[in-house]
Protein 1
Amino acid sequence: MLLAIDQGTTATTCLVVDETGEPIGRASREFGQHFPRPGWVEHDLAEIWAVTRAVADEALADAGVAEAELDGIGITNQRETICVWDPATGEPLHRAIVWQDRRTAARCDELRSAGYEPLVRERTGLVLDPYFSATKIEWLLRHVDGLAQRAREGRAVFGTVDAWIAYQLTGELVTDASNASRTLLYDIRRGAWDEELCDLFGVPVRALPEVRPSAGEVGRTAAGVPVAGIAGDQQAALFGQACLEPGLGKNTYGTGSFVLLNAGTRTPPAPQGLLTTVAWRIGGNTMYALEASIFVTGAAVQWLRDGLGIIGQASDTEALAASLAGNDGVYFVPALTGLGSPHWDPYARGTIVGLTRGTGRAHLARATLEAIAYQAVDAIEAMEAVGAPRLTALKADGAATANRWLMQFQADVLGVPVVVPEVADTTALGAALLAGVGIGMWTLDGVQRGWRERERYEPAMDEARRRELLDGWHRALERVAGDR
């Protein structure tokens, strides 16, 4: 039996998976979001661990399995979010700064103007954007009293959320290559922290976790269970979707949406608007991926619920969208935390266009779902524009795959089938599969053979209508460019 911990941006989900790869227990719970200033997003580390521990216990209870019966644990996590704590006591030294946080946008501008972008792109495959971890760490070092000295003395450590969870489980300070590759501090070709980049951001290398393979034991819990799989959530989803060969890709619909294409064992160049990242490292082999990161998709639905109060739950959007024959020219660009791939504009802000007196909550719900699909089309077309093979089908996972209207609309505007796997919690499943590979329960061939399709959505929209909708979306995009 394996326990998978999926520590996401708004909730933690845990799965218990048996030796055949079937989920036999599940639990999930949301946790608090903190917005101390406009554009700032933080999480309480103590709450994250408390919720994770509680949800893990609930999933084990749901499966009727005791912790001591587990063969291994896999961790997957919201990426780029940075945590800081005392390695001796485990005490958090500041709230986690979340990947959505934009407080370091001006600092990224400074670094770009100073000519550091080519260095960052070449070493890390990323761009200078507040999305990534390094400028968040730099901000903490500059603004939290005494933290810089503590870090130099080894009394403060920084890590992504996987490192925080692994530390709580095992007492070890470790991360994996996929998470390290999202920090702007890791040389993805050499497979090591880059001292020049660490110096650029003022980060002591000794304050960073040890980078381990994505599959393989990194430590044991108090009950003696090995933690044997770690990967960032999008890489875990790529693994869980069995995209193990070059050219296979997926889109995960979560708080944001993330399109990843397996690029093989050679580091591909990072084209404009896209990222090159480590998919996973298993044994001595590193697999890379081409990635498009879309910041706000599911978070826009959450905003409809929590910010505007026009829906009671996310599933309400399906019936509301279906109640309209069309969008009546209403488009929502959900740049609530800037725009990610392929635009990379941290200053863009959310915009709704096409409002009339006849516009109602159904239009806003539909516009939000349509925006999720349009952004995926932009990402995939950007990949194809730089030579990626045209997708014959899009593997889709994440909570929004339960929305049948959205999945059909995605197939319609993309023009290829959208395929949903049998196990909806693909991110958590990927963590479990990595842990299973890490303890020798499964081989990579076994992971490939075990993937199963649940549902397929065939495109049904004519090309003229598809282009008309996408043209309207692109006109709406032109109105959100931020002022620097």
Protein 2
Amino acid sequence: MAKRDYYEVLGLSRGATGDEIKKSFRNRARQLHPDNKESGDEAAFKELAEAYEVLSDEQKKAAYDRYGHEGVKGSTRDFDNVDFSSFAGVNFEDILESLFGGGGRGFGGFGGGGGNPNAARQGAHLKYDLELEFLDAVFGVEKKITVRRLEDCTGCEGSGAAPGSATKTCATCNGQGQVRQVVNMLFMQTYQVIICPDCSGAGKKIEKPCKDCKGAGQVRKPKELDVKVPAGIENGTRLRLTQAGDKGTKGGPYGDLFVILHVKEHPTFIRDAQTIHIKQPIGFAMAALGGEILVPTVEGNKPLKVPAAIQSGSQLVMKGLGVPYLSVNSHKGSQRGDQIVHVIVETPSKLSAEEKKLFERLAELRNEKLSVPTAKEKEKDKEKDKDKDRDKASAEDKKDHSHVGTASSDKHKAAGKETNTGDSILDKIVDVFRPKGSEHTPD
């Protein structure tokens, strides 16, 4: 894949000044560095660093402006082999210092040119992985750790020379610690400044090296440190202990130590930020009737009221029994999150004979069918329903007939009464119109 134009990578025109190049690089480096979770891009950052290395050097810039990428071929750093993950959690200014040195152009951290090799340099940053128990992360803890870091050798007081041994100026670099190296380009030759290979940039050579440090001037020693873990810390958090890393060379300051926290999982509690989740099984009786139970929390067992008729999967909140908010990152100060209790209604796996009868009785009371009826049972149920319907119809029919009989009897009585009354009147009429002397005398 063809390389992009270095000016395009930096977002500049070819007439850009050194200050413009530096400013553009710093702005883009903040965005693209892999430690930036929102816009970090390691490949783009390496491309940016390569472009800056060339355009911030006057000689390389002149060669690039004239011949393009061919003009600086072989003179740039191999950023593909640089592990930028080692800068995770490091202050951005410290990253630039390590990459490009105090002058803003050299590559002191990776053996590049630029800068005074005899100047004091800060020591390397170190990393330490610390494993924490779940509750230690919730409530905070103090831990003692031991790291092995570079210190000045006590045998030679950091000089690298054995006691009584003399040092002499390096003949290769004449005490400068740097030499110029010829670089062949397309149609020209140029020079680049590199660290002297004979004295490793010290400018001096030791006649008799120190036995303890083998002439390095430093040895790695164990150092015990106290680490204060604040309450509410999360897994993967990085704590920075300033000046707890390696000792710098030439009297330079210590680097920093980055402690990476690894929080163990808990068998009962599940953490989500400041909220703690827990599963709590209950029985049928508790689910139906409600009551009070003891629930595990990070502070020990606590009582919890369970409402009646609660369903499996319901959630109950225990206020203020979660994880404390980090006061340095939250306006909530010493407040805590909540604990969410996920209720699980358990079905008993084994029943005694008495328990089985009780459940069967409960099913009967609630009219719950415990099995699917067979065809024969369905037919029998139908016959029972028919018998019930016939009995009901018969009862209603008898009731109707009883009313009819009573009404008929009353009607006949009334009719008879009317007939008798009619006969009496008729007899009277007949007597009125009967001829005199024709009265009928009974025998």
